[in-house]
Amino acid sequence: PHIDMAGFREVFAKAKHIAIITGAGVSAESGVPTFRGAGGFWRKWQAQELATPEAFARNPSRVWEFYHYRREVMLSKHPNPAHIAIAECERRLSKQGRSVVVITQNIDELHRKAGTKHLLEIHGSLFKTRCTNCGNVAANYKSPICPALAGKGAPDPETEDATIPVEDLPQCEEDGCNGLLRPHVVWFGETLDPDILTEVEKELEICDLCLVVGTSSVVYPAAMFAPQVSARGVPVAEFNMEATPATNRFRFHFPGPCGTTLPPALARHQTEIIS
User: Fold this and answer.
1) Cys-Cys with 128: which of 34, 82, 140, 184 at CB 3.0–4.6 Å?
2) 3-state class of 182 per DSSP?
């Protein structure tokens, strides 16, 4: 792959349907913690020990403390130049009859905050709940999400579990349900929503340029999507921190922080007709 910005800009200027696949790297510059890898702990645990159906069944209070903490942290975080460049590009291109879709594994809603409209959140959102009883999905930006979680969720290892009774954890507000709510996120060991995957497939079939931002085309989830786009002969451009791209299947590779590399890549091209 080439660090060829002029070549990328030429393809970008002609593209009518741009698909942008984003991962954790796009939010890292906004200071969003991932709870994975070295130092990535909440209390004594990493995400993969808390973000599972088994952990929730065993200890819904602890899992809700973890997600309450993550929700509260996110309320203080802001989109960075990469999120903003993507949203501005969508807004500008839509006036030219061109489309941009963002397919993200991030659950932080920073794309939404930045103004992205056409957004497919394959892992769900920190700010949506799903009822374990009736299945209803609802947006929820309450802080705290329920009175019992106020002041709970501190991340340091010596914090005691709050052990909140189930009836005081977030509850469904649908008529007469009162079921226990869970975060509407895809946990380890769960499958992606087939309806969202169908939408993703449709977008990837029509895209004529694909960007992979803040993740790599050879790791999940972009690995499910980018190779099939590339196989159709559609250019794929990676924007990520890896200095050595793991594969030569992709046309362009721009190493470095996305907040630095993406804005010039998506800025208005001189040939764009602005109505």
Assistant:
1) 184
2) strand
